[in-house]
Give the backbone structure.
Amino acid sequence: MFDLQLEHSDKFDLQLQQQEVQHQNGIDSPQPIQQQQQQFLDFSTNNTSSSSDWGGNSQNPNFRNNIVSSNGEQDLNQEQKNMSAVRHSRDQIREMKKVFKHCPHPNQEEREKMSRVLGIAPIQIKFWFQNKRNQDKIMQEHRQNNLLRQENARLRIENEMRNEKLKNTICLHCKGPVSIGKMCFNQNKIRIENARLKAEIEKLSGVSRNHINAVESDYDITSSMIGELYYDGNDPFGSLLTPYFDKQKIVELAMVSMEELTRLTLAGAPLWISTNESESLNESEYIRVFPNVISPKHTGFISESSRESMIIFMNHVNLIKTLMNVNQWSAMFSDIVSKAVTIEVLSHGGLENYNGLVQVMSADFQVPSPLVRARENYFVRYCKKHQEGIWAVVDVSLDHLRPSSTTMPRSQRRPSGCLIQELPYGYSKVTWVEHVEVDHTTLLSNRFYNSLITSSLAFGAKRWVASLGRQCERLTCSIDTNVPTRDYCDNFQGRKILLNLAQRMKLCFSSIVGSSIESCWNVLTPDSHDVRVMSKTNTEPGTPSGVILNGGTSLWLPVLPKRLFDFLGNQNSRSEWNILSIGSIIKEMTHIRHGHDLGNYVSLFQVNNKNYMQNNNMLLLQDKSIDRTSSHVIFAPVDINSMNLVFNGGDPNIIALFPSGFAILPDGVQLSNGGPMLNSIGSGGCLLTISFQILVGLNPALKIENGWVEAAVNFIKNTCERIKVAMA
DNA sequence: TGAGAGACCCCCGTTACATCA
DNA sequence: GCTGATGTAACGGGGGTCTCT
């Protein structure tokens, strides 16, 4: 650490040490310390043998500062002259900072050693460390305060919204307004108001029906309704979609769905039924209020509906931009959305915003498990600005408009989406509605996951909103300069690089962990097999080409999701589940928080084990993330030389990432109050998906042998067994 | 064995000066 | 050159812990 050589006079050291001892022993010095230091200065200037100094610089100010002279007034003037030299040099501070990182409380011996090397009195080193500890503490408190202030602002807004909502809530008994601590209004007045509202609802329903009828009978594209949507009749993206008249139907369908979604987000009971902190639609009431608006339900299909609200730290403009850009949208919801594409834009909306944008899209919706079939959807997405600060984005399936010859879809989206309300300080309130009809005979294929799916925790609004909130926190942390970070990369740029790498790793993991995988993957095990093994040729530019082998499976464990998350994310317990890391010493080099919950962070580990990390030039990048509905621990080995290149301004894409890891979901059997992931739940069970990935060879033409598949299956099974034993 | 004194350390707040806009 | 804000080195007081008597 102290490799800098200093020719330092022992005489000065002795005097300084004596000075410190006297000071520490409470013996009053005949002169102030600074005056004594000035005496050292005078002594120094008269003693040529002491001219060598810090780093070969004979002008070292601190060194001069430690010198004592012996006369009075003249010294004071001299002292004032040298005040500009009171501060420690950059090199000295840098070296002390290095020590501080490992040891914020150096003992006397260590201080003396530093004193000799740095040319500062031990007492000065002691002061410096004291001040540094205080500064760090103050900074830490400052950061904590900022986080708390943000949290406070969010809670205040949420509270205001709740109060507002409460004002508008209708009492189930008397149909009147509800207020805390007050009884309902005069019943006659309430009944009159109720009748008026009912009439209004009927009227609005009539408008919807008439509207649809008008669409059925009139396909004039220049009608005032469609004109509002800026539709110009041209196909800027080519005619990928459907014949001309279908597009009019789609646009009209989008508009009607928007109306339905808006009403669904604002309605209360009896349309929505509240159970266990979640809301679902009252089916009979729904049919009464929205009769045959979209399309009849397929026989045998089951409705899944849910609604959830959340205040998120993202302004409405960015949120809408994210939702309307297919790449950003699938990245934002990477653990739910896969294979998303925009097929055709039917209307481009306003020039400066997305108001009126209508686009036809397709996407697979999945849970992170190879055992659950993904839901393929073909739908239209429409964005509309309702009034200043209030926007809505709606999706609705187009499957019923497809030619009858095509395969019957296994699920379809009824009007679903979100209402976005602009809030102060860059916040938005999002009310999310998910309403789908699903063929459970084909999509409920695994008994472990059935409860999760039917509880709406897999595909419901709660999961969408939790995922959105988590991702917003992550984005905020990546641009916040006050995020707590430890060691290795303590600068903003380095932190940003690591967070981006972790995000890339997560995207890659999400794309292979579910059942909706890209066609480039070659599945090597039969569908009936517990463990799925697949391979592909890596073609990503900048990374080593070769063959990647992936193995994955899911299992149920009788433990709380949070407990499993803590276990799998803890480097000290890694050898309990990973046979390759037994005997490893894993040291965390960097720790970057990316969320309020302490479980959300990215780490960079140094692992000294050749079995595990092939060579000493590899580090382990790990991303831990948890929200109210799911959590994951994802990790990948990264080459230390490539990392250094990237930290020095190189292209991050040169870092090859082959992520492995775990996705954890609650089993959804029985939910108590609070979030299923962060708080304990009644069921006590969770669903774990394991996915391991490895580059098996650098030859792209390599043929995968059966022995490798068997080895991969055995490795996954062994890992499962180890986790089961550890959790037992 | 417990009490008291002293040494040492740390935290916290303050002061004095340097630096910068 | 003056001024105010901010950063930094040094200092003092209070309190805790440990050792010795």
Notes: Chain A has three domains: 10-133, 233-472, 483-727. Chain A has 21 helices and 20 strands. Residues 33-34, 86-88, 123-124, 127-128, 130-131, 135 of chain A lie near DNA strand C (CB under 10 Å from a C1'). Residues 483-727 of chain A form a domain with the Alpha-D-Glucose-1,6-Bisphosphate; Chain A, domain 4 fold (CATH 3.30.530.20).
